[in-house]
Design brief:
The chain is an all-alpha fold. It contains 9 helices and no strands. 70% of the residues lie in helices and 0% in strands. Helix 3 packs across helix 4 and helix 7 runs antiparallel to helix 8. This is SigD protein.
């Protein structure tokens, strides 16, 4: 998946091809009594979700739990559409649910994506203050801003960021 995210289409195709039988096994094991076409629909929904959401996978984390979570969600969705009560055992996945305490590892990445949409000076200011967690004096020196000008620039940058978030529905 790491290679695929870097643009290696051949590796990505091989990954999805090798992933399909594993997903079929998971779906069939949990969908006793359902026909094979129904199971294959769930597998294809899972593969499509993996494809569409591949950018949300954190490459520093194992891939398997992320894939299994998507498959479980697609299976539950399919059962709901069918109108059947859903029970998905989580015992074998319980280790994956506990997150280590601390900051969300994707938080800075998401913030950086938004900040990149700002004009360069605004982006540099927010990177310095928020992402690098530098003080006002250091950021002011780095950007050539007096304390009052820094406060005004920060206020304007945050207003622009709010407009971007509102326009994109974030």
């Amino acid at each position: 998946m790491r290679s695929a995210l870097r643009g290696d289409a051949e590796t990505y195709q091989r990954l999805l091809t090798e992933m399909a039988p594993v997903l079929r096994g998971i779906v069939r094991a949990r969908a006793s009594g359902m026909d094979l076409d129904w199971c294959e629909d769930v597998v294809q929904d899972s593969l499509m979700a993996i494809h569409l959401k591949r950018g949300t996978w954190d490459p520093t984390q194992p891939l398997r739990p992320w894939v299994y979570a998507i498959a479980r969600h697609k299976l539950v969705d399919a059962f709901r559409r069918k109108g059947r009560a859903v029970h998905v055992p989580v015992d074998e996945f319980i280790d994956q649910f506990e997150a280590e305490p601390g900051a969300d590892p994707l938080e800075n990445r998401d913030a950086e994506i938004l900040i990149d949409r700002l004009p360069e000076r605004d982006a540099a200011l927010l990177r310095c203050l928020a992402l690098e967690e530098r003080g006002n004096e250091e950021c002011g020196r780095r950007l050539g801003l007096a304390p009052g000008a820094l406060r005004v620039a920060l206020h304007r940058a945050l207003k622009r960021l709010a407009v971007i978030r509102k326009e994109e529905g974030l």
